[in-house]
């Protein structure tokens, strides 16, 4: 797999990891590390437990293998796809969101994506018939790109979609409302404090 900017770096297809217990705890808890909330989110809120999250973290953050998650769209789609790269440099870890363009994902346009509006996010997540070699499930596509949400949105609409997506990927129903509210709160605080926000997970 060749991605511009990464040369022949150790990128590997990561789509198979999306369905493993502990994946969403690792990916989504990164949104909650700004210290602005009164309570602390736990891995159990997102499915699995701390041991599952720790085990998968060893895979996700391996400096010798950088997982890549392709959230691609068909040719002719009005919004480009996004490729999520766990850039596991020893001294410069980050999660990069790159413009994936349409089609197969080969020869990617590697510009960093700093944010997506609610309309853009849902159009990418919900596109019909996504290319077969990327993430297929709409809920997984949505949650992978959720950290990019920027601009203005309806809190009730976003919260409802987060709840539905978390339930679909295996989050327990007894805590899913709390998890969704926690994630939404971080998104809202970030948008309020920085209208020109770029993804805090981005290396740019």
Secondary-structure topology with pairs:
Blueprint: E1 11-13, H1 23-29, H2 50-60, E2 66-71, E3 82-88, E4 93-99, H3 118-125, H4 138-145, H5 155-168, H6 176-193
Parallel strand pairs: 1-2
Antiparallel strand pairs: 2-3, 3-4
Helix pairs in contact: 1-2, 3-4, 4-5, 5-6
Beta-strand content: 5-15%
Question: How many DSSP H or I helices?
Answer: 6
Task: Characterize the largest beta sheet: strand count, sense, and whether it forms a barrel.
Answer: 4 strands, mixed
What is the strand tally?
4
What coarse outline follows from CA principal-axis ratios?
A: globular
Order of helices and strands: EHHEEEHHHH
Radius of gyration, in Å, reads 16 Å
Distance from N terminus to C terminus (CA atoms, Å) equals: 22 Å
> Which sequence of strands runs across the widest sheet?
1-2-3-4
Mean of pLDDT: 83
Give the helix/strand class.
alpha+beta
Uncertain spans: 103-107, 193-204
Helix content bin: 25-40%
What would a concise description of this structure say?
The protein has 204 residues and is α+β, with helices and mostly antiparallel strands. Helices cover 32% and strands 11% of the residues. The longest helix is centred in the C-terminal third of the chain and has 18 residues, at 176-193.
